[in-house]
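User: Some background: our group keeps a shared notebook of sequences we're curious about, and every so often someone picks one and asks for a predicted structure to add to the entry. Today it's my turn. The entry only has the sequence so far, pasted here. Could you supply the structure so I can complete it?
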Amino acid sequence: MTALPARRLLGLGVALALALAPVSAAVAAVTPAPDTYPNDGTRVMFVGDSITGSPGCWRPQVWADLTNAAHNVNMVGIRTANECGDFTNDAGDPWDPDNTGIGGITTTRMWIKLERDSVLEATDPDVIVMLLGTNDLFGGATSATILTQYSALLTLFRDYDPSISVVVGTPPPMSEACGCAQAQTELAAALPSWAKAASTAASPVTVADLSTGFVPATDTGDGIHPNDAGNAKLATAWTPVISAALDAKVIAAQSTPEPDVTATASQPSPSPSSSSAEDAPAPTTRSWVVLALVGLVAVAVTIVMTRANKRYTQP
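Assistant: Of course. Here's the predicted structure to add to the notebook entry:
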């Protein structure tokens, strides 16, 4: 049997690899997170630990206050369970429970969760409301360490959307049993300066003071998680800050100039043969991964076919 030229073998390998490439790309696609009450409102995602999501029953009141004030919002997240019961706004609409509150999570582990599971891509938030740091404090982390981790999360948010708005809540005080009262006080005091330095015109960062007036002995059931009185205090502290962030988001959207469709339409479209490398879209990280897989498959197929070729040409 006549041996196939190595160049032809390589070409066959590359062709097979390219045929498999769409499969690799499809695997990398992100599935949108479930949306309990989808609408065209501003997409708000609560990000936090059990104080936010297990059960986090300050969220219904915040949602009701925002919608009663005519804010058009769509709560988004990877968790959709309603652990707070029936709750409606003045119009009788049921509250939207979607959130990304995960019990026991720290700031570092939340960064890992969001990145590893492509949570931002799956939820596509416009505004992130973040309450993290309680588990860090309980584990002995300093306020400086937590602020550094907040900065890492903010970078992750902006890598996804450079114009994202972020509202950060100060972790509420815990009982003295945690041994972290000083670190919690330092964190609450440092957050406004951190937010001011981190904020940009395109991506503002604001702070909700959840610490002032919150008393663990009367506002929690276990020294950490808020009871009904504590939930009411948290909702009261959250609502005006989130409302201001939503107002700013709407104003920013209205001030963004619309693209000049007429001018764009009058320009002749370049032919495929005249387009340059600069006109091509930049490959994404996942594109590079797929290309790398294509290369590996091509090499592997070439080796296998070469060995098979030799086997058939041996006497």
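Suggested note for the entry: The radius of gyration is 26 Å. Residues 1-27, 263-294, 301-306, 308-315 have pLDDT under 50 and may be disordered.
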